[in-house]
Amino acid sequence: MTTGRRLPDFPWDSLADHAAKARTHPGGVVDLSIGTPVDPVPDLVREALASVSDEPGYPTTHGTPALREAVVGSMARRYGVDGLDPAAVLPTIGSKELVAWLPTLLDLGPGDVVAIPALAYPTYEVGARLAGATPVRLADGEPAPAGTRLVWLNSPSNPTGRVQSAAALAQAVADARAVGAVVASDECYLALSWTATPVSVLRPEVSGGSPDGVLAVHSLSKSSSLAGYRAGFVTGDPALVASLLEVRKHAGMIVPRPVQAAMAAALSDDAHVAAQRSRYEARRAVLLPALEAAGFTVDHSEAGLYLWSTRGESAWDTVAWLADRGVLVAPGTFYGPTGDRHVRIALTASDERVAAAVDRLTA
């Protein structure tokens, strides 16, 4: 069986007809389906990118010492994670490639289980299938079954925006360790909190004071508007990071040198992160009440870039209802069977487009 036949259909392709319908609206489409940044890349990041654009040599897979020190500093300042070893930091080509390839990099295969949330970023399942492992969806608080080699955590959640408490995350880590599984925590929305404060899996109250068997996966796409740069990193257990590094050196999975410089600049500056968070907060403040006024219920959504919304009907019926109004959203079924009555509505549109969506919802 070819790799492609092991994978599910690419979910976004199924939105094509609804996207075409939304584009026919006289005021143009408001695309709230994909969480792609629309705001400018900070000047300090662009300047750092350009500053090393004339370096012709190969970059290092491990990243520059300046980049790894910047990660350590940012994790301490922003999230209260102290004492990280710079050697246990590894830059990645965005976070999606690491999510997709982590089971393979960890040498998982047939007979191994990868546990993912019941509602989850689709690439968790894709990564398991690429490795030939078996993905298993777990309800909140459900322990990983025997045979599990990797457990994905995601708080704040994509798609729901749900924030898990430190105690809940600590229990999930303990359960994973009990069956000998690695814990990978996807923390790319950690900087975007609204009504609850998320915590990193590397905080001592979650990890038990030890990073053993634990990885934290981060992206600069959301917090620094760097989706186009493909800028991410993984950190945590030094032995696991060293193992990932060795495989990635052989495979040529290297972040370009200019992007490494841009990442170091972005991770060393918190002001632009706060400014970007304020932009998303302002869009949320107008879009959420407009949805509620239009008869939606918004569940969870305590953090992150999405409003997990329902009209009490099939997700695809809601997608069609919004497409008729020129607004494109993602059906909850993209994220798991239990999302069949919700849609995911992104905050990643310009102020003008968000205002257009509000007008259409409240007309």
Give your account of this protein's structure:
The chain starts with a helix and ends with a helix. The strands form three sheets. The chain has a seven-stranded mixed beta sheet, sandwiched between helices. Strands 9-10-13-12 form a four-stranded antiparallel beta sheet, covered by helices on one side. It has 13 helices and 13 strands. The chain has helices at 3-6, 16-23, 43-51, 65-79, 96-105, 122-131, 166-178, 204-207, 238-251, 257-267, 271-293, 315-323, 351-362, and strands at residues 30-31, 89-93, 113-117, 134-138, 148-154, 182-186, 214-219, 231-236, 297-299, 306-310, 327-328, 330-331, 343-346. The chain is an alpha/beta fold and 363 residues long. Helix 8 (204-207) links the parallel strand 6 (182-186) and strand 7 (214-219). Helices cover 39% and strands 16% of the residues.
